[in-house]
Design goal:
The chain is an alpha+beta fold. The protein has helices at 9-17, 30-35, 42-50, 130-134, 142-147, 156-169, 183-191, 243-250, 308-319, 353-359, and strands at 24-26, 38-39, 67-74, 79-87, 97-100, 113-118, 121-126, 174-175, 209-214, 225-230, 252-254, 259-266, 276-281, 286-291, 301-307, 321-332, 335-347, 364-371, 377-387, 397-402. Strand 11 and strand 12 form a beta hairpin. The longest helix is centred in the middle third of the chain and has 14 residues, at 156-169.
Length: 403
């Protein structure tokens, strides 16, 4: 239903993410407003549970088990108190529902409603009303206060790593011992005294992930996607049960090597040349990789699935704290030389945003499968990536440093 919103979700998500504020979204339909019913989709349910405000899993079906909690409509100059009704009907499977009293006076059908939750209740922000979003810049406004309620600071380990990064930067251009896309990161780890062979096993320095990238020739960020993490599909809930089966069905022949490969990007909404695309299943909390041939009018076919909670945990494991380090590059005698010149420090990723960003095609996944001599697939990773320019949607920036 989020796809039917009358307001782009990404700009709104950015407003909250840059401040480190977790937010959930709902979009009421005409029928929902008429019948006072809105589906409480998986991200909202998890948000409520994490904030210890309500757990739908422990709620019985029926109106007698309905829970009423405080809620507020955020206007540009005031909070209007209302109530939220959380319940599971006796019909169907007791699909979780939510309703805000007098919502019809605050929102229209297909408005994008952003929900901020804390122990005091649920704050409803109508993101389709420009005057409310504009109030974020007014210090006395309710929205300004909500956006500035969190404070993110550096850890002692981050302070120590920053000193080391500045020392590496002071050495100027460093001749790389490595080649390929990962050379810029591998060389930085070596200069920091960190084993390059452990770079894919977890955070690099006392729980902090270090991601290096080449800056563009003009001094800005290169327009390349950066890997957030790698995670294999959950074969137990997938139609295809291995990388070999994926390669057999969707791989292509490479004349130079005489082998099959599958090096392609998968994103939501738009099938790639192999017909592969993502769909976020909010009800089951799954990420589904589907396939269809649009030109043939083909119905979607299941390929493989991931459990979204596994992907969120993987993101949190890799990026609880992260330094993104930029390097200027020059080539001499056939070798790259790196000068590490700036860094961005992020902390406390807003993991729930991962669902929305996959759904919007901002976070993508690369298959990197190639054929072994035996015919089986060699897996180089199922790489979940995004452009660094969008990191603020997922990883709140604490500080940027010129090294």
């Amino acid at each position: 239903m989020l796809q039917k919103s009358d307001t782009p979700i990404l700009n709104v998500l950015s407003l909250f993410s840059e401040k480190g504020i977790q937010v959930s979204f709902i979009v009421p339909t005409e029928t929902g407003l008429e019948k006072s019913i809105i589906d409480a989709i998986s991200p909202l349910r998890k948000h409520l549970k994490e904030k210890r405000l309500h757990d739908y899993d422990e709620q019985s079906q029926g109106t007698e088990y309905k829970k009423i909690i405080k809620a507020y409509f955020v206007e540009k100059n005031e909070l209007v108190e209302t109530k939220a009704s959380l319940y599971r009907p006796v019909t169907k499977n007791g699909d979780p529902r939510i309703w805000f009293y007098n919502l019809n006076t605050y929102a229209n059908a297909y408005n994008l409603l952003a929900l901020v939750i804390d122990s005091g209740g649920i704050y409803v922000i109508n993101a389709s009303r420009s005057e409310i979003l504009a109030s974020a810049k007014k210090e006395s406004s309710p929205l300004f206060n909500l956006l500035n309620s969190e404070e993110v600071s550096k850890s002692p380990a981050a302070e120590e790593l920053l000193v080391r990064l500045k020392d590496v930067s002071s050495k100027g251009f460093i001749k790389s011992k490595y080649t390929g896309d990962t050379a810029v990161g591998a060389m930085l780890l070596e200069m920091l005294g960190i084993s390059v062979y452990d770079m894919n096993k977890g955070p690099d320095f006392k729980g902090i992930e270090i991601k290096a990238h080449r800056r563009s020739m003009t001094g800005g960020k290169a327009r390349t996607r950066i890997t957030l993490f790698s995670q294999i599909p959950d074969w137990k809930i997938s139609k295809l049960k291995s990388g070999t089966q994926i390669l057999d069905k969707y791989g292509y022949w490479v004349e130079e090597s005489g082998k099959r490969k599958l090096y392609v990007t998968v994103r939501s909404q738009t099938p790639n040349p192999q017909g592969l695309y993502f769909e976020v299943d909010y009800e089951n909390d799954w990420l589904k990789n589907l396939s269809k041939n649009i030109s043939l009018g083909q119905d979607p076919e299941d390929v493989v699935n991931w459990r979204l909670d596994v992907l969120r945990n993987r993101l949190l494991e890799k990026h609880r704290e992260t330094f993104f380090v930029g390097a200027n590059v020059r080539k001499s005698d056939g070798f790259e030389h790196f000068h590490y010149v700036d860094a961005e420090y992020t902390r406390k990723p807003i993991v729930q945003n991962l669902d929305y960003l996959i759904d919007q095609g901002i976070v993508t996944m690369d298959y990197t499968l190639s054929e072994k001599p035996s015919g089986a697939a060699k897996d180089h990773g199922y790489l979940f990536k995004m452009h660094q320019g969008n990191f603020n949607l997922l990883l709140p920036r604490v500080e940027k440093y010129n090294l």
